[in-house]
Amino acid sequence: MCGIVGYAGARPALEIVLDGLRRLEYRGYDSAGVAIVCDGELQTEKKAGKLANLEKLLAERAAATDGDSGLGIGDGPTGIGHTRWATHGGPTDRNAHPHQASDGDVAVIHNGIIENFAKLRGELEDAGVQFRSDTDTECAAHLLAAALTELRAAGEENSPQLLAKAMQQVCLRLEGAFTLLAVDAAIPGAVVGARRNSPLVVGRGQGENYLASDVAAFIEHTREAVELGQDQIVLITADTIEITDFDGQPASGTDFHVDWDASAAEKGGYDWFMLKEIEEQPQAIADTLLGRLTENGQIMLDEVRISDEDLRDVDKIFIVACGTAYHSGMVAKYAIEHWTRIPCEVELASEFRYRDPVLDRSTLVVVISQSGETMDTLMALRHAKEQKARVLAVCNTNGSTIPRESDAVLYTHGGPEIAVASTKAFLTQLVACYLIGLHLAQVRGIKYADEVAAVVAQLHQVPEKLRELLGRIEPVRELARELKSAPTVLFIGRHVGYPVALEGALKLKELAYMHAEGFAAGELKHGPIALIDEGTPVICIVPSAAGRSMLHDKVVSNIQEVRARGARTIVIAEEGDRAVEPYADHLIYVPRTPTLLAPLVTTVPLQVLAAEIAAARGHDVDQPRNLAKSVTVE
Ligand code: F6R
Known about the structure:
This protein is α/β, with parallel strands linked by helices. It contains 18 helices and 25 strands. Strands 3-2-4-1-10-9-11-14 form an 8-stranded antiparallel beta sheet, with helices on one face. The chain has a 6-stranded antiparallel beta sheet with strand order 5-6-7-8-12-13, with helices on one face. Helix 7 (281-289) packs antiparallel against helix 14 (449-471). It is globular, with a radius of gyration of 26 Å. It starts with a strand and ends in an 18-residue tail after the last helix. The mean pLDDT is 94. Fructose -6-phosphate (F6R) binds next to helix 9 and helix 16. The site of fructose -6-phosphate has 15 residues, from helix 9 and helix 16.
């Protein structure tokens, strides 16, 4: 939810920390702040609003004080920075991180929610501590300062290890989910971090080390990273990385190499990351498919700790995810049930565990998450594991919590997705789900290798089809300008077109802040058709007539029904489908694709439409209001 950066090295920390925050701003942009340790002093600055507000403030300070770094505060080589998505306390200057204890020496930043904060705050206030913010984080700052004072009083010398020891004590008192980073003016050169149920990775540099919520923050400086385990403390200095558990016992992380470079996290000439990520979809699909089919025709996942025998015993599948990832799961259900004949249910992660789903050893739970950190999905995963179900994760982020806790993983190789609205994550999740369906069908002996290879070959054709579609997308941009003032936009589809309709509506809501709803086309006449007024735009996703002509004809009838009631119909159909022409006020042809795979192409015009309408309405396409990329609270 929030973005966190820490640096210990020899270079001025402020520029490095600010640069890291720029790359993490997609995680939250309600406020930003930094704390730099400079000549035994702690210098902090923080500001409500986007990072640009903080940068402006720093520039003003620099102009007024001639700051050493030219950025308004000193150029010490140790620092931390934070970009916030508010949970406890509104998005104001005083609630922005870092938070400091009363002595002003300790600064703490935090991602997550400290669930016992009210109790802790009460205790601290009873002991005379005065709070300066409404945040739960401030408790951690006061507790850390108190732990340091006690340890020093007991004769401990100032050293980086003292900071780690104090942090261990703090973590033992905290409940909930947190990543914490802290510095202490009296212990220069060290940054301590802690994590429980919230992301934190270490960047291993030469004579400098980094801590961050996500590798994007330090990818420009190093591609060597360390994944931390649950309930671990990490202490970095310029030359060392020490990891312990919350009891101070030595622990270790897992080294990994990041296989994309800094340019992947740059806009590369596009106005918005989202537009760049839409254009990257053909490559993202190709990368996700790479090496999936072995020479003897077997589908390969990435990490599989479930035996083929157990996969053969699966008698029920749940797909669990949130938002866009949930829509990819809805599409997956059609393919998986069709190919494997195993009953498959799709559930919102936030609902799943609260309704006591029936799970056992022969249930396979597929969790889908771009970030691998979505708390609702993580909690659903843990619930499934408690019930002894096997969990297979589809994830785009190596080293994140969800794949680590799963029994098997299929990584989508979409590369970093910076725009808050998911695009390439969605399409690569679809590809991953198709592969899972084929793998299950293969393991269970339902599909022969040549049948699997035929579907994989169709998938391999999708990148080229998308390139062609994206090359002639201009009319969709023009349409966006026409639709930008519509009071409401409706989306209809059947079969796999239904989740596409939901996804199109979600994109429009989150980016353009317009009323938009997706419906199963056949359901419209049971109520929602009353919404249709003269000129109401209705975007209709039409399935291929090939193979399932009845499905196609039903949607064409639904288009006629809405048009008869005054709707302005915007029809997305496959090339050569002349049957829709008489009923389309605006027709968008997409390349021919087999029905089950069609969402890989029909979704793309809807992504472009939403981004362009948002831009035409003057909104920030990459960072829509009230949202954050990675939702690490329930
Ligand atoms: C919408 C969007 C969200 C995410 C959802 C799950 O454009 O991006 O709905 O899909 O928050 O996130 P992950 O996939 O990271 O679990």
